[in-house]
Every structure is written in C-alpha cells, then in structure tokens.
Amino acid sequence: MSIRPLYDKVVVKRIEAQRTTASGIVIPDTASEKPEQGEVIATGNGRRLQDGTQVPLEVKVGDQVLFGKYAGQTVKLHGEELLVLREEDILGVVEASDAKLKKVA
Sorted alphabetically, which keywords does the UniProt record give? Predict the structure, then answer.
C-alpha cells in the first residue's frame, strides 16, 4: 500500500538530523527537534484553478526540500512517519552544487 497525494499536496520523508555534535557529544531523542528538511516521495497532479485548468507542481519526487517547523500533517504508513503538506508550505528546494558532490582528497 502506498500513498497518492491529491491536487497540490506533497508527501515528504524527513531527513534525520545528526545526533552527535562536532565534539562528539550525543544528543538524545528527547532533546532534539524534528528536522525541517526532507525528501519528496510523492506529489499530487497540481493545483486546480477556478477556470478548471491545472497548474503543475514545481517540486518533483526525489527533491530535498525545506519546510516550516509546524507545516503539514504527520501521518504514519507502514510504521514510517511521513509529512503531507501543500506545495505552498515548502520554503525551498535544496540544490546540490558541484563543489559538494566532488570527492575531497
């Protein structure tokens, strides 16, 4: 069973935040906040305007996105916590630059 969002809805899987600091201190689950970044795993067909035309979504499956702390609705599917939100609740798409993708020697 999978989820298929409707209209301008987007399903996002949160990307887990790092649980240790640079100095090696482990941050417990109770002290850490939910991450505000995730990967789009499903999208709707787009927003329907009053005249009946459909506007396609800007985001696509696989995009890494940023969203507000209180954005969307949390749902559980197969024991996995997902976030369903409107495209307008997405603050931006994280784009990987070539510099980050290159292996540092």
Answer: Chaperone, Cytoplasm
Number of folded domains in the chain?
A: 1
Residue 58: what residue type?
E
Residue 91: domain span: 9-101
CATH number for the domain that contains residue 13? 2.30.33.40
d(CA 89, CA 40): 13
Burial state string for 9-35 with b = 16 or more CB within 10 A and e = fewer than 16: bbbbebeeeeeeeeeeeeeeeeeeeee
Enclosing H/E stretch for 31: none
pLDDT digit string, tens, across residues 9-62: 999 998 876 666 666 676 655 545 566 889 999 999 988 889 988 899 999 999
pLDDT at 86 over 90: yes
Closest to 10 in 3D by CA, of 48, 52, 55, 60: 60
